[in-house]
Amino acid sequence: MTTANKITIARILMIPCFVMMAIYYGHGVRSGHPQDWQRWCAISIFVVAAASDGIDGYIARRYNQKSRLGMILDPVADKGLLLAGILTLSFSNWSYEFPIWFPVLVIARDLIVMAGALTLHFLNGNVQLRPSWTGKTSTALQMIALAMAMLQLTFHKTVAIGSWRTAFDFIDIPVGLAGLFTAISGFGYVVNGIGQLHAKGHGDPKPWSEI
Fold first, then answer.
1. Are 189 and 116 in contact (CB under 8 A)?
2. Cα distance between residue 182 and residue 184, in whole Å
């Protein structure tokens, strides 16, 4: 097994460690006795895991250690870390919890993309799934929202227009933008997948005898 793959596997193993420390801190917040070292431990694990993504990629390119196993494990590790952070900070009683629609939207988009990729592989025999700029933007905004939530960079603001007033957290801005770009990128992947199916003639009507 290559060094790059070992680092990727280590990143996957760090995910449950991060979740455990984040949940422990959330329990402390709920009981009224938060242990700040637990929060910083969770943050440190997350940062090390996120940084290892660039390290294993560099090693794979620099020392020609690219492998089919790495091509499978790397996106699994990346997506697993991101989803673990979003889900944990949605239900673990930290000072800021993501709104329920946010993890639902992120998971739904990923499930739709996975289902579409499997369908294309089954019908077309190959999948042409290229990262889009909207997908990269949504991932960046999700990471920004996660960083702000873990560092507790929440600033309450009140907006008043005439007699109408509403309060929100500053972190709601990257969360809302991440949700928007997640939905847009998901729609783009669906359109692209439908186009690949039609290019192979799977959308054309056929007699029952040919189905």
1. yes
2. 6
Block residue for tokens 């801190």: 25
Question: What is the distance between the alpha carbons of residues 25 and 151, in angstroms, rounded to a whole number?
Answer: 13
Supply 111's token pair.
Answer: 């499930």
The length of the chain is 211
* Alpha carbon distances (Å) from 209 to 124, 169, 179, 186: 20, 59, 44, 34
On whether the CB atoms of residues 28 and 35 are closer than 8 A, the answer is yes
What's the sign of the alpha-carbon dihedral 26, 31, 156, 183?
positive
Tell whether the model's pLDDT for residue 208 goes beyond 60: no
End-to-end CA distance of the chain: 44
Residue pLDDT, tens place only, 4-44: 899 999 999 999 999 999 999 999 988 889 899 999 999 99
User: Which ranges constitute the DSSP H helices of the chain?
Assistant: 3-31, 36-62, 68-91, 101-124, 133-150, 172-199
CA distance 210 to 198: 17
pLDDT one-digit tens code per residue, 111-145: 999 898 888 888 877 777 777 889 889 999 999 99
* This prediction's pTM: 0.83
